[in-house]
Amino acid sequence: MNDGLQTSPARLGPGGHWRNWVGNQSFIARHKAEPASEKELAALVREASRQNLPIRVAGSGHSFTPVVATSGLLLSLMSMQGLVSADVDRKRVVVRAGTKIGDIGRALKRIGLSLANQGDIDTQAIAGALSTGTHGTGIGLGCLSSQAVGMRLVLADGAVLEVDADREPDMMAAAQVSIGMLGVISAVTLQAVTAYNLKERLWRDDFEACLEQHDELAANNRHFSFFWCPVAESRHLYCLPDVSAVSPSKREHDVCEIKVMNVTDEEPFSDEKTFERVAYSSEIYPIEYIPNFHELEYAIPVENGKEALRRVRELMLTRHTDCIYPVEYRFVAGDAGMLSPYYKRPSVTVSVSGAPGIDYWAYLLDVDAILRQYGARPHWGKLHFNTAEDMPSLYPRFQDFQAIRRRLDPSGRFLNDHLRNLFA
Ligand SMILES: Cc1cc2nc3c(=O)[nH]c(=O)nc-3n(C[C@H](O)[C@H](O)[C@H](O)COP(=O)(O)OP(=O)(O)OC[C@H]3O[C@@H](n4cnc5c(N)ncnc54)[C@H](O)[C@@H]3O)c2cc1C
């Protein structure tokens, strides 16, 4: 552990209002700060601890849960962005914790590397995305945090802990998905891969036709995912393109909008008629969303995916016909993160959304009741109904995580009410 105690005392400036991207979470922090260096960050954390204030960090605010909320010091690392170093031979890069995923992709492209996988958007701060277990799709591909092989953590007393997966795999397994509970991540080391282009293909098919091909599409494509759309308007709510021209199904409702992506040697192109395109990996992954939805997402064992999805579909077609946002269905490989939704479990993720301004709670509760029966683990950044009672059975290494959390943050400085309900 480095001694971060030599920095001069920081002055905590005024606080203010904060809200997340979609607007369903907001709070007023007593102090806000945007350090420009790890040294400044450490001094701020130490001063907040001295004043006995709780501390939280905001990434890009793309979580739907109250994981950022604090009444004490709210930190933003938006002035701590960019590539720190690259070891091209080992394909490893160190990035500052506030760096946006899209900027990491652009930096990797310049040095002939790529991220192994990414999610649907690339505007999250890397530390924020890792901390909630953010994922893309691909039966053989882990979530983003499984690409992290090291990080620097500013602890509650301002000291800096260097976490290295090779030397301390257990500490890394605790820190890689930790919802900001161990300290403030100041930098992350990522294991990248050789740069690759992806070819994307989109089409639509009937629900049962899609499920009939489920295993084959998952096995034969690097990435496979789909959105099930109960009605024709569903597609517009998530800005999905109209792929009628290339689809075997002529229906517009009760259909799956399917996407596969594979590594290719082809040169970049985009064909609007065939809904195929090729580009550098990180230019293919992100799609467009507007802040018109509140999302719940759980990970369940891959072998239960089809059955669980059929039951969610049935629920929507019978009891909640006014809930028409698409259901997104993706694949994630198992990993070692103690709080990872995919801990040692190849998974599919099922996500549903409610419309802001509508009372969608009963719908989400009904979806929760179905998915719970398959040992559903929540996406920490998306709405869920889990409590402390659920944790030990869902996460086999929960007590190990708790022991590390209590050792690194004995006074619970990095907890807030939401996290105390789950972890204290
Ligand atoms: C439109 C949209 C699309 C999305 N697509 C996907 C997707 O494809 N796949 C997926 O899995 N998820 C997806 N999400 C969820 C999103 O990726 C996660 O909620 C992610 O955590 C958000 O990152 P952020 O930078 O906004 O972090 P925030 O939401 O701001 O913070 C998330 C957590 O990280 C903590 N944190 C942030 N920075 C630090 C730090 N430096 N040190 C310690 N803790 C820190 C915060 O305190 C908080 O607990 C999507 C969300 C939206 C709104």
Explain what this protein looks like in three dimensions.
The strands form five sheets. A nine-stranded antiparallel β-sheet has the order 16-17-13-15-14-19-20-18-21. It has 424 residues and is an alpha+beta fold. Among the domains are: 16-76, Uridine Diphospho-n-acetylenolpyruvylglucosamine Reductase, domain 2; 83-194, Uridine Diphospho-n-acetylenolpyruvylglucosamine Reductase, domain 3, CATH 3.30.465. Helix 8 (305-318) packs antiparallel against helix 9. The protein is built from twelve helices and 21 strands. It binds flavin-adenine dinucleotide. Flavin-adenine dinucleotide binds at residues 21-22, 56-63, 67-68, 77, 97, 119-121, 124-125, 127-129, 131-132, 134-135, 179-180, 184-185, 289, 379, 381.
> What's the CATH architecture of the domain at 83-194?
2-Layer Sandwich
Cα-atom radius of gyration: 21 Å
* Spans where pLDDT lies below 50 across 5 or more residues: none
Approximate shape = globular
Percent helix among the residues? Answer: 25-40%
| Ligands bound to this protein structure | flavin-adenine dinucleotide
Question: What's the arrangement of strands in the largest beta sheet?
Answer: 16-17-13-15-14-19-20-18-21
Most strands sheet = 9 strands, antiparallel
If you consult CATH, what is the topology of the domain at 83-194? Uridine Diphospho-n-acetylenolpyruvylglucosamine Reductase, domain 3
Mean pLDDT: 97
Which CATH C-level class of the domain at 83-194 is it? Alpha Beta
Task: Estimate what percentage of residues fall within beta strands.
Answer: 25-35%
Structural class assignment = alpha+beta
The first-to-last residue Cα distance is 25 Å
Total beta strands: 21
